[in-house]
Amino acid sequence: MKNTIIRKALKTDVPYINDILNYAIINTNYNLNEKPRSLEKAYEWFDEHKNEDYPVLTAEVDGKIVGWASLSHFRAYSGYDTTAEISVYVSHNYRHKGIGTLLVTELERAAKRFHMLIAVITDNNSASLSLHSRCGFAPMCTFRELARKNNEYVDITFMTKIINKK
Predict the structure, then answer these.
(1) Are 99 and 1 in contact (CB under 8 A)?
(2) Dist. CA 101–CA 98, nearest whole Å
(3) With CB atoms 3.0 to 4.6 Å apart as the test, which of 67, 88, 150, 159 could cross-link to 59 if both were Cys?
(4) Residue 5 and residue 61: Cα distance in Å, rounded?
């Protein structure tokens, strides 16, 4: 999308990041949290990412935060330190405009210390499955009925991409 700026997130962006996340929590089965995240927890999340050097990026259009992406710990074992879980969220009013692709592309540039990125995606989130596929992620496995939200079991697909061969 024209006029889209992808940049490192600032602490002042946290309320907008949180609003986009909470929309997905409340209105979809794509995020498996069942209750919206508080702003206090969002600031804690942001500070943890900054302190541990896990990137958080935002997409800005005409001065408005319309999407964000981050890398996070995949699992809390040292053997996974070269793997990061990718999260990408785009405001519902700005989907299907290429913003997710811009975020993933820039996030990969910021992820040079990692060997592999992994996306954990609910199978009913066809937009995210398509986005990650377009960006070179390959489906590795699907866990049937691994999670439950809104009284429905959902399948979860893991997609991976090696970004650093060393």
Answers:
(1) yes
(2) 5
(3) 67
(4) 7
State both tokens at 86.
Answer: 């990718």
Residue the block writes with tokens 């070179």:
136
Is the full-model pTM beyond 0.90?
Answer: yes
Question: Contact, 89 vs 131, CB < 8 A?
Answer: no
The helix, strand and coil proportions of the chain, stated in percent and rounded to the nearest 5, come to: 35, 35, 30
Phi, psi of 13 (to 5 degrees): -85, -15
DSSP, residue by residue, 48-87:
HHHHTT--EEEEEETTEEEEEEEEEESSSSGGGTTEEEEE
